């Protein structure tokens, strides 16, 4: 399935579920001096996550062009990019965990026809700031995800916040099993070996992190993100996003230029060798 088909299916699906389609915000943030680039779909929506009324309503969906440098050391593996497009759907004080998970599951298994056995999920295990997310886990059980493919992790894996402070909350992440051999007996979605690829993140934003700690927001929000390039790679059976049609033209041109450069280097080497041979004689 081509990336444009995935994007259109996503927007159409959520529009049918009552979401207003909103345009991508600029990559250079407007009226937000906290970051240099727009790093996620939720970033332009922060005022509305905090309680301000959005002109399009309480259910939104769209695609956001992002630049993220926090993962820059991982760029080059089978899933990380610096520039990417994030598909998202948001609930601003409307639905919460149950409906969000149900729609995500329906989209993946019905619209994209991903087999249930390919999916694993992670949930927040709880700490002093927020309880263990058994609600999300129970929702996944009802969707058919078996217990052995439901994992619980801490804030480093299953808590989302953009920056040091701001709206945040526990998340449940959805992973696709590539079928690669497990790296060890303890191989799981958090190990980063590449067997499991995160394809969607549902964040349940009901907290605000300030200088003095966490407080509850005025409303419970849902903020989800699905990486278009990752999903294209998964559905096309590619090893990396660079092998999909999104990058094919650029990658082919780079290979062409590399071949030209190699030929030029070979010619220069032969010319230099000839001159050395002539001088020696």
What does this protein structure show overall?
The protein has 7 helices and 9 strands, in the order αβαββαβαβαββββαα. α3 runs parallel beside α4 (134-143). Helix content is 33%, strand content 27%. By secondary structure, the chain is α+β, with helices and mostly antiparallel strands. The protein has 2 domains: 3-239, Bira Bifunctional Protein, Domain 2 (BirA Bifunctional Protein, domain 2); 244-281. Strands 1, 2, 3, 4, 5, 6, 7, 8 and 9 form a 9-stranded mixed β-sheet that branches.
List the helices and strands and how they pair.
Blueprint: H1 3-16, E1 20-22, H2 46-49, E2 59-67, E3 83-92, H3 97-111, E4 119-124, H4 134-143, E5 150-153, H5 155-158, E6 159-161, E7 166-177, E8 196-210, E9 213-227, H6 228-236, H7 245-280
Parallel strand pairs: 1-2, 4-5
Antiparallel strand pairs: 2-3, 3-9, 4-7, 6-7, 7-8, 8-9
Helix pairs in contact: 3-4
Throw out a few tags for this protein.
33% helix, 281 residues, 2 domains, alpha+beta, nine-stranded mixed β-sheet, single chain, 9 strands, BirA Bifunctional Protein, domain 2, disordered C terminus
CATH architecture descriptor of the largest domain = 2-Layer Sandwich
According to CATH, the fold-level topology of the largest domain is BirA Bifunctional Protein, domain 2
Oligomer state equals single chain
**Radius of gyration from the CA trace?**
22 Å
Give a quick rundown of the structure.
The protein is an alpha+beta fold and 281 residues long. It folds into 2 domains: 3-239, BirA Bifunctional Protein, domain 2 (2-Layer Sandwich); 244-281. Helices cover 33% and strands 27% of the residues.
